[in-house]
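Exam review. A common question shows you a sequence with its C-alpha cells and asks you to describe the fold in words. Practice with the pair below. Do the first one on your own.
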Amino acid sequence: MEESIPVPQYLEATYWWAYARPWAVRLFDRQSAVNGILLGNYNRLRDEALKEFDAKTAAGRTLQVGCCYGNLSPYLARRLAQGGGTLDVIDVLKVQLDNLHHKVPPSVGVMRMDASALALPDAQYDTVLIFLLLHEQPQAYRERTLQEAFRVLKPGGKLIIVDYGAPAWWHPARVTTLPLYRRLKPYSVEVWDRGLPAVIPGQMSGHSWRTTTYFGGLFQKFVTIK
C-alpha cells in the first residue's frame, strides 16, 4: 500500500535537492545546518513547540505531520514517553521516514502518508503538531493539510503550528534571505509576505488562535483548541 502513495509533483520538482535524496538528508539533517537555515533560531523554535506539551498534553496521542530535520522528533518522543503519551509521525517521502527511524525509539509510529490526504480515522489524536511544513507547500496543499489536521484531531484537542511569519518591514532577512527563497523555496514567499492567517484564512478562521512571534516576526507559533 505504501508504495502506491505518489510523491506530490511539486515536492519532487521543487524540493528534490533538500528532502528527496539520501545525500540531501545526510547534508541537511545536522543541527548546525538546520540552525543556519533558520538564522540561529532552530533550538528556540523547537523548545517553543515543546512548551505546548504540558503534563496533560504529554499524556495523550500526538501526531507530527511531516518529518523535519534536526532533533525535534527525538526530543518530542522523549517528552511524550515521560508523560505516558504516544507519538506518530507521517511523511510522504520514504527517505525521510527511513532517516527518522534512526533518530527515534521503536515506540514511535512512523507512517508513510501524504499530509494533505491522511489515511487516518477522524478524531484520533489529542494533539497535532505541524512544524515548518505549511510554508513549503503550494496553496491547495496547505489548505488540505490544515483541514486534515483538524479532521484527525479530537474535539478539545490542541493544534500547534510553528512556521514562518510576515517579518517586520525593517527585518534584515527581507534583504538577505528572501531573494534566495524566491529561487529555492518559492512557496514560502507568500507566507513570508502575508502570514498564514492571510494566506489560508478559510482554514484558520472560526478558531481562536493564540499567536506568538519570534525574531522580529520572521517566525510564529499558532495554537488553537478544536
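Now try the second one, then compare your answer with the model answer below.
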Amino acid sequence: MDRLLPACARCDLTDPPCQGGSDPAPESCPMVLAPAEIRRSRSAYREDGDLLRLARMASIQEAEGYSGRFGPGPPVPAKPRVLEVCELARKLDVELLGLAFCTGLRMEAALCQDVLEARGFEVASVSCKAGATPKESLGLSDDQKIRPGCFEAMCSPVAQAMVLNAFRTGLNVVVGLCVGHDSIFFRYSDAPVTVLVAKDRLLCHNPAGALHLSGSYYRWLTAAGGRDDG
C-alpha cells in the first residue's frame, strides 16, 4: 500500500499540536492529511444541538473522573466506569437506561442493573438471545455452531436495539456483546451507546491484557506469519 494513512498511534511527539503543543505535525497526522474533515467535524458540533450537548456533557464527565485537578500534583483517577455511566446519564437527564448484554455475562448484567437501579434509574435490559431465532436463519451449517447437533439461538443485536428503541431508552449500556454484534447494536440503536464491558472470553473481559503482553507471552500476536486463531 503506497498511500499515507493517519498514524496517531505511532506519534512520538512530546508537545503534539493536537494537544495545543508547538511541535510541527508529522506528515501522517490527520490534521495534515484530512484538514477538510477536521473542519467539518467542528461544524457538526455547531449544527447538531443534540450532538453538542452530548459532547459537552461527556467532556465535563471526563474531567470529573479525576480528583486533585486544582492541586499542585497531577490529576488522579477517582471513579469506576460504572459510576461515570450513571453520572453522564444524570447530566443528560436520562431516566430510563437500556442494558444490552451477552447472555454469557448475565451475572455481570444483573450486577450492573442492581447498581443502576440503586442510583435511581429505571433499567430495561435485553439479552442477546431475545427472539430465540435459530442460527440456521443466518445460513449457518450445523458444524459452524458452538455445539453442533444442538439448537442454538443466534445473537440478535438488532432485536436488542429495536426492543430498547420501542421503550425509548435515553442511553444504552453494552455489557459484553460479541465482536461484530456490538457493531450491529451501535448501528441500530436510536439512543447513544456507551460500553461498560468489552468481551474477552480468554482474558476475563480485559482485552487490554493481550496488548500489554504483546511483547512477551502474547508476542505471537505480532510475529510475522502469526495465525489469526493463535
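Model answer, second protein: The chain has a mean pLDDT of 94. The helical segments are 30-33, 35-47, 49-64, 81-91, 106-118, 157-166, 181-188, 208-212. Full marks require stating both points clearly.
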